[in-house]
Every structure is written in structure tokens, then in C-alpha cells.
Amino acid sequence: MRRIEAAVVGTGWCGGIRAEALARHPLVERLHIAETREERLREVAAATGAATATTRWRELLEIPGIEAVYVCATPEQTHYPMAKAFLESGRHVFLEKPIALTLEEADELVALARRQGVFFTIGYSQRFNPKYAYVKKTVAEGTLGEPVSVLISRHITRGLGNKISGRVKLSPAAMEATHDIDFVLWCLAPAKPVKVYAQEVKRVMAPKNGAADCNWIMITMDNGVVVTIGAGWILPPGYPNFSSTWIEFVGSEGALMVDDTHRDVTLMRMSQPGAVFPISTMPGESAGHVFAGPMAGETAAFVEDVVRGRAPLVKPEEALLAMEVYTAADLSIERGEPVALPIPRNPQAERLSLTLTEGVL
Fold it and tell me: Where does the record place the Gfo/Idh/MocA-like oxidoreductase C-terminal domain (predicted)?
């Protein structure tokens, strides 16, 4: 089987995980990385043996051998221009969520990938979580009968919530519930969402950065199924980037409860009061010789898709639909009423203008 060259743009928390996974993958011949922080760039380059390590991401466009590019940069305003540049150059692109900041930008990226004949996918890593994959399998096989209702409650710690909400003005619906929206739509397909109603609470974060503490979203599907998704990011510290999720999937002939609250591994020490929950982040983390979590497997899958010419698990059209749902949730909060789907596009919508100067991601 042939080997390819891959690149990672932005090697922070998630990008670093992806870079290390790619460096270990037998189908990756050379790895190229871009990162604005020179100290972090040197750290990841040393850990991965990267063939290229640059602070200027556009330099990667000039390396003809690169076939697959992982766009993991922050802030999220960079996603659209970076993904567009790599798609236009004929590269297969893996893009961290969100797909874009506006539906018009997302439409453009999906259409561009289709015209270029390249793979384009979004980082919805929870599809690679075995517990979530089991839910999908159970629903697809009809084990629960006809789906009736779904409830998902997701919470992350305040430190991570402050970090995310402080760098981009996107809601918990757009940055956290988006994973669960994608997951539910994946499970319930071919059913489509037709109506969204949402509310928010602003108590803890609003005085600091104007962000909501949590969003609760109710989605009505065209087959009558009702979905309720809650996402918040103000949990007290428990473990760096701790994530807790609970899922209830109820059908006409059965019910499935999934505990993804990460309470199965508890660490207590004399030097640190209280308990912490290792191996509890959404992306996962290394545990010695193995990686515990979905992100490494998701990263490897895209390389294998490119080499085999196989369509990625997450289709860009599915990511676009998830974006419509969380956009509708934001609009519902703003208007105080349900929002019907699909959302009409505004051809005159102001495009995001972002000047990417030399050396800036």
C-alpha cells in the first residue's frame, strides 16, 4: 500500500494529538507542521520528527508532495480561509469544527471540495468513540424499535470553557453541542431536523466575556422524534479538560443509556485534595503505549481514507446540516421562538474578512 505526505496546521492541544498520531502511522511517509508559537513548534517537531516545521502555514501550499492536510488552527476565524486555500490547491482536507463561521462560507467550502474532487471532512471525533458507535449500531439494527426521543447532557470544565469562549464569540451550541447534534443526526438519518427551539443561561461567564454558561436545545425531526441536547462549560475544576456526557436513547421497543461521565477511573493523592478523573477528556490522551480516546483513531482513519480512495465517515454535507441546527439554536435564543429548517441563505451576507499576514495562523 502506498504512503503519503500529510500536514498539520496548528499544533496546539488537538493538533498536537493529530501530529503525533500521524507520525506513528505506517501510511505517512513524511509529516509537515505549521505553528505560530515557536516554542511549541520546536516541541512538536522534536516529538514527531517532522520533515517541515514552519511558522508560516502558506509555505505548506508550496510543498507538492502533501496530499492530506489537517487544519487544527485557532482562533476559529482561520478555518474558512485555510480550508479554502488547501482545497483550491487540490489537497484532501480534514478540518476541526466548526466548518466555518457562517453558513455561506460552509456552503462554499462544501461546493469547492465537490468541484475539486477531493475529500473534505470535519473533526466530529465522537463518532469514533466506541460507546457512540454502539448507539449508532443499535439504532441501525432496530434493536430499540422506532426511535422516540433522545436526551444528551454534556458539560466541560470552566477552565476550558473560559479558554474557548475567550478566543471566539461562538456559543456552547456551536462549540460543544455541535458534537452531539452531529451524533444524533448520524444515528437518526435519513430523518431530517425541521424545527429548533433553544434557551441559554448567562450567570457565570457573562460578566467576564459575555458568553452563555450553557445552551439547551430541542430539535424536532421530520419523523416526529424529539431530541434534547444540553451543553455547558462551567464545571468546577476536576481534571484538566474534564468532560462529562450522559445519553438516553429511547425507542418503541427498548431504551439505551450511555454513561460517558468518565467516573470509572478516579485518582486521589495526598499532595492534591479531592479526586480527579484521568483519561476523561473528549479527544483522549496517551496512557503509556496506547491512546485512550477517539481522536487518534479519527486522525488515522482520514489518512487511510485518502490512501484507499474511500469517502470519510463524516461527509461535509452532514457537518453543514449540524451547523444549520446549532445556528438555528442561536437564532432561537435571540428571537425567543422556534426556528424552522432549512435556514434561508442570504446571498448578500457579509463575508468574513481575515487578513493572514506572514507568520500568522
Answer: 136-341
- Taking residues 295-323, what's their average pLDDT? 98
Helix 103-116 with 316-335: angle, nearest 10 deg: 170
Architecture of domain 126-282+315-340 in this structure: 2-Layer Sandwich (3.30)
> C-alpha cell of 263?
467516573
Of 246, 280, 247, the C-alpha closest to 263 is 280
pLDDT for position 167? 87
Distance separating alpha carbons of residues 114 and 83, to the nearest angstrom: 13
CATH 3.40.50.2300 fits 4-122, yes or no: no
- 204 — pLDDT class (breaks 50, 70, 90): very high
Q: What is the pTM of this model?
A: 0.94
pLDDT tens digits for range 110-160: 999 999 999 999 999 999 999 999 999 999 999 999 999 999 999 999 999
On whether the CB atoms of residues 230 and 177 are closer than 8 A, the answer is: yes
Residue boundaries of the structural domains of the chain? 4-122, 126-282+315-340
**Which pLDDT belongs to residue 169?**
87
Whether 4-122 shares its CATH topology with 126-282+315-340 is answered no
Residue 178, C-alpha cell as written in the block: 455541535
Q: What is the mean pLDDT of the chain?
A: 94
